[in-house]
Amino acid sequence: MDGKKRANIQVGKKVKVVQKADQRTGKLTEGVVARLLTKSATHLHGIKVMLENGVVGRVQEVITTEVGKE
């Protein structure tokens, strides 16, 4: 799912984010959303969030799991 729309992201969802330091390499960090930091409905580079482990980054992908699979 697209990480550029705030409506696609909720607290508790598993996402992949790119941290500021990793923007050049594109390295993604996976985690669970603790807070949404971007106020606007959309953002060109992804909605900024804070993960439960304290990492701040822009969402590149929202991970959706099928029923019965985790």
From TrEMBL:
Family annotation (Pfam families): DUF2196 (PF09962)
This protein's name: YwbE family protein
Organism listed in the record: Jeotgalibaca dankookensis
